[in-house]
Every structure is written in C-alpha cells, then in structure tokens.
C-alpha cells in the first residue's frame, strides 16, 4: 500500500507582539508513515530515502544507566559520560580500583582513545567546546537541575585524553559549568552559602592560579564587588552557539532576583520569572535577556530553547501558555513573541533553516520562522523524549518511549523507526570529529 501523502496544515495567523530581550539496543522495529493534520496534500521530496529500520545518522542518546551512541544497528555505551555540545566528542569514565579510568570517544565514528588513569575517584562534569579538556569533580551535579551537598572546598581535576593537566582545590561550593574559549579559565557556579546552598552566582577561575573572580559586564568592564547576580530557581536548558563562543542558559522561577545591571545602577529591577543567561566564553562577560510574562509562570520543563544554524536567532517556547519568543543574539533583545500552541509535559525544540520544530506530550509541531505560527501538527503516538536534526537538516529525529523515529524535516512524514530498549532521552546527532 502506498503511504498516505503528508498534508500541510492551513496557516492560521496568530497575534504577535514586538518587544525590546543537557544507554542499549536489542531489537529494531519496522518503519511507518503518518499524515500531518490539516488540508492540502504535500508531496515528499524525491530525495527522501525509503523507510528503513536503521537510523541514517549516528545519534547521541540517553538510556537507563547513562549516555550512549546509536550508530545504525550498533550501539556504544559511554559510562559516566559527557559530550561536547555539537555531539562530536565524548569522555567516558569508570572506577579503576581506587582510581578512575578516562578515555575520549569520537562519537560520530566510534573510535576511542587509550584509557588513562586518574588518581582518585572522579566524574566528568563539563567538557570544553572543542573537546580537548574535561573538568571532573568527585560527584556529578547538573548545572541545570540540582544543587550540590554542602561543602567549603571543591576538588576539581582538569584532564585531557593524555591524562591529568591540573588538580585544583577551589574555595567554596562550586560546580564547573564551562571552559573559557582559550581554555585558560573555567566558569563555575558558586553556591551560597556553601554549607547550605540556596542560591548561586557565576564566576570564572583562572586555571593558571586557581583563583576565582567575577565576570565582566557586557561593556567589558569588571563587575564591581557586591554587584554579581545571585540566582535561585530552575536552570532548564543550556545551548552553545554554533561558533562555540557563547553559552545560553534558560532560567525560570527566579524569586527576588536582580540582574547585575540593576545592582550596579541601583534600580530595583523588574518582576521577571524567566530569562536567558548569556555567557560569552571568549570575552568572559555575562548578560541576561529577560523574557516577558507568561514565561516562567508555568512548569520549568514546559520551556524549551533552540538556536538557528547561523546562530542569529534564539527561540524560547513555553508550551504551558502556548507562547514563543524570538531573541536576536546580536542585540540580545526579544524581537517578537507569538501565540503558538498550548500543551502539557516536557517540551523540546530544535531549529533548522527556516523552521522551528517543537514537541510536548505526544504531539510535535512545525513553525515557519518567517511567520512564527503553526504550519504543521503531527501526533506521534506516545510521549516525546527529545528532538534532533541530522547534520544536513534534512531529517528530524524524535525520541520516544524506548524508540527513535526519523522524519522528513520539510514535511514531517515518518521515514523510519527503531526500537531502543531503555531509551529515556535523545540528545542530538553525533557528528564525526
């Protein structure tokens, strides 16, 4: 039987407002196709391959027990692993007696380096954007989900594929977040007070001296003592810009929060419940892009963020309220907002050339970026656990319960599906290093 042609939903103009601101296989399932809701058949491009049971691209996935790479019919576990934001390289570690074995993996090709032995027990915490350095701590703490246990000193190990580079004992209760672009510094979240943490601030550690200090303002001046932002609430998601120089982190539910710019000026600030913390890894400054109401009013996991391939636009979606905001990454302002769709459950988003793909619950939607409205809607038959685009942006991958499917990114038509027992999340495409 011939598959039913995909259909494009009729375009509904939504009101807009212009505003000034982070495992494996056993069986493979058969493939299938489905239709977009709406009217008017849309033919799939001739270049789209026939449906198959093997993913055409290697994928970085989360499964019960950790991180992994799905490569056709093969899988590769990455125990206690962490990957670069672009999915090229990953570091894995396992206990080795009283020490730790560490190795690096080319996620796209599956090639692993020789194992090196690190003295003591360590867990990878963050990896540099180029994949050449990894910071390890004695316990894993997510910079976007958890608060650490109380402590006054934090041991940190800096390593690469050849072994230990530096061993630090940083004062206070800190969690490594990212390396500076030149690898000379390490951005950390410093939790306060250290023994009973309830808030945190971003600082940068000079790796030559081990001394932490404040960031710069966007005007590239040092932040005065006492003016550093102290944040509470939920860090929902972090994204690295395509050129690897800027880290964007979405925060929601920030009670009694004041931005650095307000603390410097003495202004009281505004009643903001969500913002995008922009951290420039090369120039070492930070700036917060405030998101308008209703962002941050709903569940933190109902928010998702995506960046365009050229890095020029950042999109934040709140599926609880059905709102999407477009941020100019050059101006660091919210350029416009749009009423999109409302849903419940964790939200996921990814942006391709001219399109924004969004999913929550058991449904995914496509938006044309020029209009920022709903151009297609598709039920996927179960909760979505992640979205990812192939390196050429031709295929949209959808994480499902114990499975992954791939679709024509232009039409949404399903091209194939594979069972992945234990799958709990889809991270992204695994590109060759």
Describe the model:
This protein has 433 residues and is mainly beta. The chain has two domains: 1-78 and 300-433, Lipocalin (Beta Barrel), CATH 2.40.128.630; 79-213, YVTN repeat-like/Quinoprotein amine dehydrogenase (Methylamine Dehydrogenase, Chain H, 7 Propeller). Helix content is 1%, strand content 46%. It has one helix and 36 strands. It has one helix spanning 260-265; strands at 6-7, 16-17, 41-42, 59-63, 66-71, 74-78, 82-83, 89-96, 99-106, 111-112, 116-118, 123-127, 134-137, 153-160, 163-171, 173-179, 185-192, 199-206, 211-213, 234-240, 246-252, 274-280, 286-290, 303-307, 313-318, 323-328, 333-339, 347-352, 355-360, 363-368, 373-379, 386-389, 395-400, 403-408, 414-419, 423-429. The strands form nine sheets. A five-stranded antiparallel sheet has the order 2-27-26-25-24, with no helix packed on it. Strands 7, 8, 9, 10 and 11 form a five-stranded antiparallel sheet that branches. A hairpin with a 4-residue loop joins strand 25 (313-318) and strand 26. It is globular. Mean pLDDT is 83; it is low at 1-51 and 260-268.
Task: Name the features.
five-stranded antiparallel β-sheet; Methylamine Dehydrogenase, Chain H; mainly beta; 2 domains; disordered N terminus; 1 helix
Which fold name fills CATH's third level, the topology of the largest domain? Lipocalin
Largest sheet: 5 strands, antiparallel
Number of helical stretches of at least 4 residues: 1
Indicate the CATH class of the largest domain.
Mainly Beta
Distance between the termini: 41 Å
Would you report the number of β strands? 36
Helix percent reads under 10%
Strand line-up across the major sheet: 2-27-26-25-24
């Amino acid at each position: 039987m011939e598959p039913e042609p995909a259909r494009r939903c009729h375009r509904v103009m939504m009101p807009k407002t212009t505003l000034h601101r982070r495992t494996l296989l056993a069986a493979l399932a058969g493939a299938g196709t489905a239709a977009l809701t709406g009217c008017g058949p849309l033919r799939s491009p001739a270049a789209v391959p026939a449906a198959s049971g093997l993913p055409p691209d290697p994928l970085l996935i989360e499964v019960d027990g950790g991180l992994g790479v799905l490569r056709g019919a093969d899988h590769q576990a990455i125990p206690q692993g962490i990957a670069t934001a672009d999915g090229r390289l990953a570091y894995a570690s396992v206990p080795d007696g009283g020490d730790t074995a560490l190795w690096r993996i080319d996620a796209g090709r599956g090639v692993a380096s020789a194992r090196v032995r690190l003295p003591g027990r360590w867990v990878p915490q963050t990896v540099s954007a180029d994949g050449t350095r990894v910071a390890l701590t004695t316990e894993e703490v997510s910079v976007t989900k958890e608060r650490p246990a109380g402590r006054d000193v934090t041991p940190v190990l800096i390593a690469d594929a050849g072994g230990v580079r530096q061993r630090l004992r940083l004062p206070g209760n800190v969690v490594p977040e990212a390396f500076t672009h030149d690898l000379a510094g390490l951005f950390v979240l410093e939790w306060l007070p250290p023994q009973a943490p309830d808030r945190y601030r971003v600082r940068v550690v000079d790796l030559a001296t081990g001394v932490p200090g404040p960031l710069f303002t966007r005007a590239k001046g040092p932040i005065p003592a006492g003016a550093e932002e102290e944040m509470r609430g939920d860090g929902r998601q972090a994204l690295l810009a395509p050129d690897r120089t800027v880290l964007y982190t979405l925060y929601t539910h920030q009670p009694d929060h004041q931005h650095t710019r307000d603390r410097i000026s003495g202004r009281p600030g505004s009643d903001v419940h969500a913002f995008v913390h922009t951290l420039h890894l090369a120039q070492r400054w930070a700036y917060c892009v405030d998101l308008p109401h209703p962002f941050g009013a709903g569940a933190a996991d109902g928010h998702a963020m995506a960046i365009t391939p050229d890095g020029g636009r950042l999109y934040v979606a709140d599926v609880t309220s059905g709102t999407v905001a477009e941020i100019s990454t050059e101006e660091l302002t919210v350029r416009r907002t749009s009423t999109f769709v409302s849903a419940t459950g964790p939200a996921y988003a990814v942006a391709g050339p001219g399109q924004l793909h969004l999913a929550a619950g058991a449904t995914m939607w496509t938006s044309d970026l020029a209009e920022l409205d709903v151009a297609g809607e598709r039920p996927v038959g179960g909760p979505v656990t992640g979205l990812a685009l192939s390196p050429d942006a031709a295929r949209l991958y959808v994480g499902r319960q114990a499975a992954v499917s791939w679709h024509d990114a232009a039409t949404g038509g399903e091209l194939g599906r594979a069972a992945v027992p234990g799958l709990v999340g889809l991270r992204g495409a695994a590109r060759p290093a």
